[in-house]
Amino acid sequence: MSVELPLSPEDVNEIATILDGSSYDRLDIRTSRFRLRVERSGEGWSQEWSLDEGAEVAVAATVSVSTVAVVPEGLEGVAAPLPGTFYHAPQPGAPPFVAVGDVVGPDSVIGIIETMKLMNPVHAGCAGRVVDVCVDNATMVDSGAILMHIQPA
Amino acid sequence: MIRRLFIANRGEIAFRVIRTARRLGMTSILGASEADLSSWPARDADEVVWVGPSPSPQSYLSVDAVIAAAKAARADAIHPGYGFLSENAAFARAAAAAGIIFVGPEVSSLEAMGDKLMARKVGIEAGLPVVPGGEAADKAQALVRANATGFPVLLKAVSGGGGKGMKRVDRVEDLEASIDMAMAEAQASFGDPRIYVERFIASGRHVEVQVLGDGETAIHLGTRDCSIQRRFQKLVEEAPAPLIPDDKRAAIETAAVNLTRHLNYRGAGTVEFLVDAETFDFFFLEMNARIQVEHPVTEEITGVDLVEQQLLIADGNRLTLTQDMVQADGHAIEVRINAESWADDFRPSPGTATHAAWPTGAGVRVDTHMPSGGVVPPFYDSLLGKLIVRGATREQAVARLTAALDVLNIEGISTTADLHRAIVRDPRFQAGGVDTRFFEGLTHG
C-alpha cells in the first residue's frame, strides 16, 4: 500500500523558492497517486496536497452508535455536540450527573463526551425533567446522537 | 543493521519517522489502526500492518497487538514515536523478548524516569537542583508536605508526565479536596494513584535540553523554551531558549548532560527544567525518555536529524557527534496546529479537513499528516500538524512565522490557527522570554 511521494518537503520548499523568483503564481502537479499545488499566497507560498481518491478511503468513525433517531412528541432530545464516548458520571465509580426524574436547567451538565483525549461536558440545553436516558454508559456516539429525553418545564 | 523498521505510532510523527527511515534506506512498516489505514502516512509507508480496531487501548496502546504486528511484519526494530507506548517499560521488554530492537533507551532508564518521584531522587543523586517539595505517600502525608512546602502547590501524578494530571492548589482550604481529585484522576489516567507535591513557581519558564547518549557518552543539543502552554499542554516552542545569560544557559545544559551520563542513557531524551524568570535559578522537573513533539526546532538550528541519531544509537553505534560538532545557528519556532476551536474553549473538532493549504518556502518547515480531504478521527489527539520556521535571528523567525500563519488555511474543521495568530501579535511574545503565565494574559482576538 505504498505511494512513493517523490517530492520531499525540502523539494517543495525549493519549488516555492524557484517560483518566487519567477513570474509564475502556481504549480499544479497531478499524478495518478497524488496532487500537489504550490501557490503564491499573499507574500508567501502555500502547499496543498490531495491524495488519490481511487484508493479505498477508510470510514473515519467506525463507531458502534447507539442513536435514537426520533424524539417522542412533546419531549426535547439532548444531542451529542461532538462524536466520542459518552459517560454518565464524572469518573468511574462516581454517581451519575443526572438520573431519570431529575430536574435540569439549560446549563445543567448531564454527561461527558470523551473525544480526542479530552472530556467535554454535555449540557441539557433546556429546562425540564429527565424522562429517559437513551445511551448506555461508555458508549461511542456520533455527533448529533440523542443522549437523553427531557420533558420541558 | 536495521533494515525493516516498524513504526508503532500515527499522525505527523509516523510520517516524520518514515521520512528518515527512507533516507537511511530502511523499509518502513507502519502499524495502523482501523481508522488510520488510509491515512497519508499509511500511503507513504512501504508496508502497512493492521494493529487493531480504532480505539487506542485496542491498537496503539496494546503491547500484545503491536508486538504481534511487528513480529508478523518481520521487523528488525520498532520506533515508538511519542505518547502511546513510547516510554512503556513493559513494551520495551516485550520488544526485546521478541528479538526486536526498541528504538529508545534501556528499560532501566524508562523505569527511572517514568516514575516522576524516582526521577526527582535520581536527579538529586546526579547533583541537580529540584523544586522544593516531595513524596506524599498518602493523603495525610500530602497535607503535611504541602503545608511544609508553602502555597501555592502543584500536585503531580507519580506515574504521570507530559503535563497530564497536574493540579494547582492555591489555598490550604482547597487542599484536601484537590488531593482526593488528583489521586482519583491519577488512578484513572495512569493506573497509579500516587501523587507528589511541588512548590508552584509563579514566574517560571519551562526550559528543556535535548540530549543524546550512547550509554557511555552524552552530549546536549541546546535548549528549547516551551513556556507558552495551556493547562500544561505546550502550544509554542522555540530554540534556543531566548534571553538567558550565557553562564546560566551553560549551567542548565551541563546539568542535563550530567543526568544523562548518570543514567548511562542510550538514545534521545529531553531534560525539563523550571527556570525562575528573574534569577534564572533552575530546577529539574522530569526527563522525557523519547523523541518529543517539539524536536524539529532543535533540528532546524543544529542541522542534526534526531530520528536518525535515535536509529543509529538503537543499532548499537557509538555517538559520532561530539559536543564541539554541535553548532547552533539562528532561531527556530514551532507552533502546534490542533483540531480544536479556540472560541469554544478548545473543544476538539474531529471531521474532514476539506481544504488544507500549509505554508512552504524559505525557512518554513511543516510536519503534518493532513492533506486536503484528510480525516481527523475522534479516537486520538488533536494535533493536525506543526508549523516550524527558522530565521537567522529571533526577529526574523517571528516575522516568518507571522507570514506563514497568514498563508495557513484549513477548512472543514476548527483549528487553533487563530490562537497562534493572536500569540504572534502579542508584544510579550515578540519581546521573548515569557514565562508560563503568558497564556492567561492573552487577549482573545
- Classify the secondary structure makeup of chain A into a structural class: mainly beta
* Backbone shape of chain A: elongated
DSSP strand count of chain A: 11
Order of helices and strands of chain A: HEEEEEEEEEEE
Helical percentage of chain A: under 10%
Assembly category: heterodimer
Strand order of the largest sheet of chain A: 4-11-9-6
> For the CA atoms, what is the radius of gyration of chain B?
21 Å
Spans of chain A of at least 5 consecutive residues whose pLDDT stays below 50 are 56-68
Mean pLDDT of chain A: 83
Major pleated sheet of chain B: 8 strands, antiparallel
Structural class of chain B: alpha+beta
Rg of chain A, Cα atoms, Å: 24 Å
Indicate the overall shape of chain B: globular
How much helicity do the residues of chain B have?
A: 25-40%
Distance between the termini of chain B: 52 Å
Strand numbers in spatial order across the main sheet of chain B: 14-13-10-11-12-15-22-20
Question: How does this model look, in words?
Answer:
The complex is a heterodimer of chains A (153) and B (445). With 153 residues, chain A is mainly beta. Chain A is built from one helix and eleven strands. In chain A, strands 4-11-9-6 form a four-stranded antiparallel β-sheet, with no helix packed on it. A four-stranded antiparallel β-sheet of chain A has the order 8-7-5-10, with no helix packed on it. Chain A is elongated. The N and C termini of chain A lie far apart (57 Å). Chain B is 33% helix and 29% strand. In chain B, strands 14-13-10-11-12-15-22-20 form an eight-stranded antiparallel β-sheet. Chain B has a five-stranded parallel β-sheet with strand order 3-2-1-4-5. Chain B is globular. With 445 residues, chain B is an alpha+beta fold. In chain B, strand 4 (77-79), helix 4 (89-97) and strand 5 form a beta-alpha-beta unit. The chains are: A mainly beta (153), B alpha+beta (445). Chains A and B meet through helix 1, strand 2 and strand 3 of A and helix 2, helix 8, strand 17, strand 19 and strand 20 of B. Strand 3 (44-51) of chain A pairs antiparallel with strand 19 of chain B, so a sheet runs across the interface.
